[in-house]
Amino acid sequence: MLLLLAACNADYKGPVSADGLYIGSSPPTRADVVVELVDANGRGVSDWTGGEVSISIDDDELAHTKRTWDQVAAEQPVVVLVDIAVDDSSVLTSYRSFLTRLVDGLDDDQPLTILTFGETVDVHRASTRNADLIATAIDELNDSADGPTNLHDGVIDGLATWDDQLEPDGAIRRGVLVVLTDGGTSPSDSTLEQVRTAAEGRAVMGVALGRPGGLDDVATHGLFEAKEAADLPPLADDVATALQELQDAIVFASWCNTDGDKTGALAVDFARGTLKGSLEENMELIDVPAVWGASGVIPEEVQTHSARISDGYMYVGGGDEDGSTWYAPLRDDGRVGSWRPGQAIDSGEETRFHVADGWAYAVNGGDAYRGEIVDGAPQGWTIMLAPGATNALRSHGGRLYSITRDDIWVTELDNGDPTGWTLAGEYPEELAGGYVGGAFVGDRVVAVGSWRSGADSDWTTRAYAADVNADGSLGDFDTYALPAFMGLWLNVDAVGDELVVLPGDDADSSDILVGDGVGGWSVAGSFSAARTYYATAVEGDRLFILGGRAADEPTDELLYSELVDGTLSLSCTP
């Protein structure tokens, strides 16, 4: 996030920030200006109803579109910091009632983290959207902290723990820290100014049972006081309302980068008052007719790995003889949020990884595993029946399919567990020493294989397509030629009703082909540099490419494009 310097009239003041701007050579199609409106005391205001907004760079006005909070994919995590250095167990009972009522007043998918503190800060419940896990964590709160409450240091350490939990790279800064304390405090080496610096624009709310104990200085976005334990739970309704108002106080404006190169200072003007900001260094928006836009990066430079998208999360697994798994929330605008580690797979190189219907699957030769997805995380890997030398795992009609270089296998699933693999169909020819990928286009499976026979120049890529029968077996395969050799680490995925074949190692070109599943092919776009050993994933009309090697160098790039009418491009529609 790029912070802008802010100046304003008496009604409103900063912060103003630009989120999504690219500095350098990355080719964006859209940039977002994010404005949080706060009053002179730093409290969020929600009475701005969306008057006129203008955006300009060096007085050159840019066409833009305003977006509401619901239209942007930006997480606003709620982190609760609970003071457990208490002498009276009834205080913790009151805390539990307050938190239960607070959670009931939040959106069902609101991410919540619970930290506890006395002299030190500990993670009581890592970030989760799972209501059952949150309820259990609230029930398990206890007064195990030793020593007095150190409020200022506790808030600073709580914010640092927030960063470690939610965004190791520090990109997700927006959110609310709710400090719940009985008001007790002790001398602190940290000053109030250091607390404010640690917050870096994040809202801090205070909830005090008894005397505020310095919390009124720390709580930049509201202080709620209860004199008696019985008065605390009803305050949860007011806090939940205040959290919603903070969301309402954030205004987004977007513009498409279609007017050529832009360099200079950014200004944002509102009809009610003016907020202006400029970067400390020149801002450069590079206008490149790009097929691929940056979605973020993956956690490691990996190759020969797999990626899938399911239930709002992106998953990466396997590769480089490493069974690591990672997951991150996928935002509506195509960017990923914070990556978090899942449980590693006890397997090695070229592990095929797949996620569907709340379960993750991994296959490496004769080794196969399944793990349940709990609150987004793949975990609890156990041995499952192996389908053979899988090149791609795909699911269709509630069944799991293993696409190998010779044939395709299928199994029914019983609560995520394969009940028994059977041969679904066998290709009409052998892919000697080759590689194959595949995907489902409607009720038709298409496997695309590449192999070499004879001299180095004898390269072949063919597609084999068959209809899926009601029992999961496959009909007769049709064979189709492709207009080019697509390489030995090609990638195959389905974007909507179209099959996308992406080139791999030693491919004839960097062109990406789109097929209709019945033999028709066209060029949808290309890579700017040859890519090998990467992974693909699909969500809606978007196609993502992850890691591997670009121009023969390892990369952690995560790029995306949109397939519309058979052409890969980037949309400027917010």
What Rg, in angstroms, do the CA atoms define?
A: 27 Å
Beta fraction: 35-45%
State the major sheet. Answer: 6 strands, mixed
Distance between the termini: 18 Å
Please give the order of strands in the largest beta sheet.
9-8-7-10-11-12
What would you note in describing this structure?
12% of the residues lie in helices and 41% in strands. It has 574 residues and is mainly β. It is elongated. The chain starts with a strand and ends in a 5-residue tail after the last strand.
Brief summary of the model shown:
The relative contact order is 0.11.
How do the strands and helices of this protein lay out in sequence?
Blueprint: E1 2-4, E2 16-19, E3 30-36, E4 53-57, E5 60-62, E6 65-67, E7 78-83, H1 89-104, E8 112-117, E9 121-128, H2 131-139, H3 151-166, E10 176-181, H4 192-199, E11 203-209, H5 215-218, E12 223-226, H6 232-248, E13 250-256, E14 262-264, E15 266-270, E16 274-276, E17 283-285, E18 293-297, E19 306-310, E20 313-317, E21 325-329, E22 340-342, E23 352-356, E24 359-364, E25 367-374, E26 377-383, E27 390-396, E28 399-404, E29 407-411, E30 413-414, E31 417-418, E32 422-426, E33 435-441, E34 444-452, E35 459-467, E36 478-481, E37 491-495, E38 498-502, E39 511-515, E40 521-526, E41 531-532, E42 535-539, E43 542-546, E44 549-550, E45 553-554, E46 557-564, E47 567-569
Parallel strand pairs: 7-8, 7-10, 10-11, 11-12
Antiparallel strand pairs: 1-2, 2-3, 3-13, 4-5, 4-15, 6-13, 8-9, 14-17, 15-16, 18-46, 19-20, 20-21, 21-22, 23-24, 24-25, 25-26, 27-28, 28-29, 29-32, 30-31, 33-34, 34-35, 35-36, 37-38, 38-39, 39-40, 41-44, 42-43, 43-46, 44-45, 46-47
Helix pairs in contact: 1-2, 1-6, 3-4
